Amino acid sequence: MTIHDNFFDELWENFKAAKGDEVKLELFKEAVIASKLVLEENGHNPRIIYELLLELERLKDGFSQGPLNPPSPSNRPKDIKAQNKHRHAVMAVEIHLLMGRKLEEACEIVGEEVKYAGETVKRWRRDKPLDLTETIKLYREWLEEEHNQDKKIKFLTDKLRTHLDLAKG
Fold first, then answer.
1. pTM higher than 0.70 for the full model?
2. What's the distance, Cα to Cα, between the start and end of the chain in Å?
């Protein structure tokens, strides 16, 4: 490989014009190799560039767990969107319980709505967040204050629909 004055400029133009990732990776490798050669010619130690080149090759072959492809953290935050859907599905189960259904039946109904097995929804219920208890308490208090049965049913139906819509995403 010969390196002339405009080599890196031409390489950059080719990189910008490249359409695929494979072509860009090859051009990047060419730049790394050229950089290594320039360092050697000027009497500098090119070892770090050589290690980078090796790491790129390992990464390309899918074997790298080095600095360019670190392992994923074990304490990764959970999927907030999924947790929110689970929470609203559990709320829907609790509302069904307020409407007089049994736990198994409520879990099956909500499970069908959110496209999960009833047992899965029941498991989510075991891990329910603290604010869920507070919300159910507020719903119960409202129901106790209201004496009109039609208004109670409408209130619970509206809340159920809202939580199911949020559980579906």
1. no
2. 56
